[in-house]
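# nightly structure sweep
# worker-07 picked up a monomer target from the shared queue
# config: single-sequence mode, recycle default, output format = structure tokens
# input follows
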Amino acid sequence: MSVWRFRRLPAQRLPLDPRSARQARRYLRLTPWSSLATLVTVLSYLAFFIIRPTDPVALVAFVAISAGNLALTLPSVGGRLPAQTPSRNSHGDLRITELPIAVAQLWQALNPGVTSTDQPAARPHSRRFYVAWSASLLLAAIALFVVLANDDREDFILLWLAAPALFVAGCAVALKLLPPDYLRFERSDD
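# output follows
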């Protein structure tokens, strides 16, 4: 079982209860199609707002496509992997998160190579990767804003929306430079 369907790393087969197995199979079956569903949603958005914004059939199609794509993100429809899904770190070691303490101690007793840790999972890419992407996205946002502000003509509204979107994406990637679990949001008992 792996989070990525087309990954070439070996997948781990672990026993699951029937309900979790059904949700995991559904997730693994539908995940490769999520990018295609998002592309269809974006294209329907563009077709609706550029071609015929007053056509009621286009409005119904747009709402149906958007609702279908949104429904795929629900765990009851699109499935989900269990919280204890195994993953491999950059060194190839198997890592299982959110495992109960009693089960982890049992595994340690039965397998001498198993170690437990309270450290959060490492990021999938190096810090250099996140620095390069965040700098590129932030520079693209600034450059797009400067070009749009100084070209002395009416520009398409989606171009104006792309500049803040690139900026927010760059800030989100820059936050990945912080260690995992560095920022914690705790619930108050109020």
